Amino acid sequence: MSNIASLLQASLQPASRKQAEQQLHALASQQGFLAHLLTLILDGSYDHSTRLAGGIYLKNISKLRWEEDDAPLPEADKTALRSQLVPAMIALSDPTVKAIRAQIAESVALIAELDFPAKWTDLIDQLILSLSKTDYSINVGVLQTAHSIFNQWRAQVRSDELFTEINFVLSRFMQPFLDLSNQTATILLSSPAPPNIAIVTQAQIILVDIFYDFTCQDLPPGIEDAHDSFFAPQTGLFQRFMSWDPAELRSDPDETQPSLPAQLKTKIFEIGELYIKLFPDQLSRSPAVEGFVQSVWELIGSNKLPGVADDSLVSQSLRFISTAIRSGYYKSLFSSRDTIASLVQGVIIPNIGLRDHEMEQFEDEPLEFIRLDLAFGGSASEVATRRQAAADVLQALVSSGYQTEATEIVGTWITSGLQQYNSNPAQNWKAKDSAIYLLTAVATEASTTQHGVTSTNALVDVVKFFSEHVYQDLQAPAGSIHEILYVDAIRFLLTFRNQLTRNQLLSVLPLLVRHLNADHYVTYTYAAITIDRILSIKKGTQLLFSQADIHDLAADLLNALLNKIEAAGPPEKVAENDHLMKCAMRIIVTARQTLTPVYQQVLQRLVTILGIIAKNPSNPNFDQYIFESISALLRFIVGGTPSTLPMFEQTLFGPFTFILQQDIDQYIPYVFQILAQMLEAHSTGVPSEYRSLLPFLLTPTCWQQKGSIPGLVKLLKAFLARDAAEMVKTGQITAVLAVIQQRLIPSKINDGWGFELLQSVVQHVPPAQLKQYFKAVVMTLLTRMQTSKTDKYVYLFSHFLLFTMAVNVDGLGPDYVISAIEEIQAQLWSQVLVNFVIPQVPKMPHKDRKVAAVGLIRMLTQSRIMLTPPSTQSWHPAFVSVIKLFSEPQYLAKSKDEEQNTGITEIDFEEQTAGYQAAYSRLAAADGAPVDPVAYVRDPQDFLGQALVKADPRVRGLLATGDEKVVQPFVQALVASGYAIQ
Q1: How far apart are the C-alpha atoms of 231 and 751, rounded to whole Å?
Q2: Which of 80, 477, 713, 844 has the most CB atoms lying inside 10 A of its own CB?
């Protein structure tokens, strides 16, 4: 334990990071580690960087290992840490250790998410007892910690469990919260200002955050009773803070960070927005909204707050106006033409233009410019720019019944902007930029990030505007107009891609290829984003564009994209622009076999790029897209021309071996999936270079990283399907079963992968050779059922038993499974069947119902044990469960959409949040269409009829004594269909 500090220091150096982290990981499960770590964090004799690294490590333990199955943290250590964290927060009240305190606050929140209130009942009491009447440095720490716990409620779905927790907190924290809110506001709003005004204001800001936390799900009685003290016009705290602007807290006009009063007002507008959405009746008790609207005019009307520091406040106050308009409760406030005209002139127009700092960002931080520009409609106050928030007010007017007035008033501004531009294009390019932005806003009725504009304002002809004013910029020679106008033209195309016809979109693709070769970062990146989104358009479940559409362009498109990626230089610059890599992936997925003539060059370039970024993995999205590109190229080229497989193996084995040897853990999950994909492409046998990899794949270290497990399972399944006999001969099957029994089945996270691998073992290892291991495997499954049963596990266990009975493998009948269970304990099978399997059958998801039906049918008609008393007692309930499956026959057949939609059309990472040590980064291109393990059965009902005809006479005897209301009508229907059962 004595070298924790030196290990933390070593973890900050790239050269020693990995080794230090491994040693810390091993230490963490030792008794006393957490206490040592916290002591170090609090010890001022260590330097700040070591203490901060300790704080971050504690936070990561709380996030990744608090409920770990493998190498768990000692329970006594966890209990001790829970009791020490709040005092630690208080000890870190000094502003100089704010960054360390933030890590501890996050640790509290992460542990509370798992343990509060059940295992941490005194947490809230600890926080309340720590609040101080006078020391606001302590109060800020306590409130920050409280907010980090309550903040999680905002994103949660309503449930009894959630409201139990909220009510538990409110019953203790509400009164201290209201008292401290009143005390803090009184201090700030009285004159003269207190000497510690900054720290008191910070406390007030967090109190407003907690107010939001308390009201984000429902209106607590305590806050409802105190409504007027917060919302009353003139006298309410929120209203009084709107005009509060103490000289001591005013910031420099060139400052870019919001002042404390601006932060406070922004949070109050967020609460106003929340109340309009959730509690409009409560707001209508007094003219609170009218007061807020008046505050917006006074604060930001006619561009009164032009500074960058006020961007969040202006954006949030505009969003408050948008929400009020959309709610429909305040028609009297916004419906007059004069009000709309003054809204446009006083609030929208001053905020719609590009500002100087945005132009600087366009040149110096292009990726940040793109990120903000694409975040239109984002809900977090720090995301939406002023122009987006202003455009949103306009869209609110258009979609709330004021489109005639809004379109007409804005139309004059658009016309005027275009005229200004035409009078002097070089000088007045900003006028056209604003006109296009206004037109985009007024034309949009509904849109999503993924699909662009989905419905437009009927009074605006988007296609006409495109052909008259935008298309010319799209085809303008490089350098002939301002760079922003190229971006505007491409963005217009991106936004209104659904409004253009297929042929119109095809005609602009060559122009976008030209823009991919542009010099400016934003221009070529926007071109890539637009190509990607155009090629992703679907009509129903089908993609609009196919390989024939980009046959002639694909090679040029890929060449332009890879040129830009390769030219970026160092690894982190190469990997920073994931938009380019995503577009390359989309082209490979769309072009498919079209790329066969150039696949070798493309593959080699992708591998070269991979070699560069592997030196310093820094962008999970880029990683996902490059591996997806390699996987898709492999899938389509080898699928069309199997003889190309050796070339893929030759090119990829070297870099993949390097990744495994260097233990680049971010890439290993992808490598396993693509190795599996290549091995699956061999219809029979396993080449020696794969076979030499197998001993490594079965070592415990391989299975330690959670993210690798699904890829490893996929790879081992490919080995089993082709090489099970050899694996039995070399004893490697024992190692596979050891992984299943010791690492996967006992884990609540990985048990599903354990069953998937076990199903493959059962399917491919000859039953006679599996027999010696099978009883021990079943013992493992039953032990887990006894010690830590979960709903998911009961389902997986039941499905596995039915799967093993259903698959068509010589020597593997229902009695193979049943006798193994009966050997453990007589009559145990009947208990398992009645208590677990039968209740799970109706819960089986669509994809597993056919397997369940076939497994049950074989058990009922082929098992000798089931026909021997006393097992016969469970025969009838099992037969009734089959009848119930057939009463919903749609569950036994796949829909056409599902068949067509497998695999590649599902590649869409729009909402994916890739992350290192993510549970699993699946490669969609590596997933083939699902295989039906009972494909030998075409129609399960016919299979049942035939099985009953051929069955042992005892089966007919059991049928005859079946339930008159359920079994008899079903049997009669089978007889009527021609099955000679009776």
Answers
A1: 52
A2: 713
